[in-house]
Amino acid sequence: MSDAAIIAGTSEKSVSIWQDAWKRLRRNKASMTEGGIVAIVIVLSLAGPWLVYLYNGYGYDTLDLDNRLADPTLTHLLGTDTLGRDLLARVLYGSRISLMVGFVSTLISLLIGVAYGAIAGYFGGRLDEVMMRAVDVLYSLPDIIFIVILMALFERSLLLLFVALGATSWLTMARIVRGQVLSVKNEPFVEASRCIGRSNTGIILRHIVPNTLGPVITYGALTVPSVILAEAFLSFLGLGVPPPASSLGVLAEEGAQAIAVHPILLIAPATLMAVMLLSLSLFGDALRDALDPGARKV
Hints:
Layout: H1 3-27, H2 29-56, H3 87-123, H4 125-139, H5 143-153, H6 158-166, H7 171-184, H8 188-195, H9 200-208, H10 213-236, H11 248-257, H12 264-290
Helix pairs in contact: 1-8, 1-12, 2-3, 2-12, 3-4, 3-6, 3-7, 3-10, 3-11, 3-12, 5-6, 8-9, 10-11, 10-12, 11-12
């Protein structure tokens, strides 16, 4: 069989795998409900502050010092915070920042982990051994300590937060990708690419990495909520999203300080964060089940 035929067959197989995963995902009503909740949260985080502004004329950063700590009313559906800002707009804007932190940091971790694991698994030998021993050493170090040191040494910014969270979340991804690469690097379509003179970089990017996308997507979906939770923890240490931006973690930390006089300042962001984290985690589990090769019908 020619190289083109082998590669074409592999492409058709990949398409059928994705189609099969999508069919099983759609048959799972619970997973579709969780995905719908995630979609609603994303839409509200993007459009919510604008809709609140159209509703009452208050942006997420509009100050009203004469109306501080107001109870919920028809004008301010969740009341106002310590500076008179509309709490609903603040919470929806905070969810946007939290999701941005989760997705961008996860993307950074996946880029590092996929590249590292693919190189280690493809070339193997001593290089693989050295690279994976380095991963073992990094595993023994507490992630949060590394993040705290970075945030304390350098000027706080969203970019630094993305890098710090992403640079501590790639280790498991590297191991997963390495295992996948070891299982496919000697397949006929990879050997055919070697025979026609394709470079190692071309083989990795064109044939190896695409065959690891199932586990990568699954792990990425499960990493997003853990990164959001890590950022919330950093916010309670004063090392989260720098002002004037506010994530749900920052809002929850501010609400905790005023819980005795205005509990909704903590309840509102904490509730939305709980719904967001739960739906993201359950949807990630559903993706894992849908992409599980053992669940496919032969």
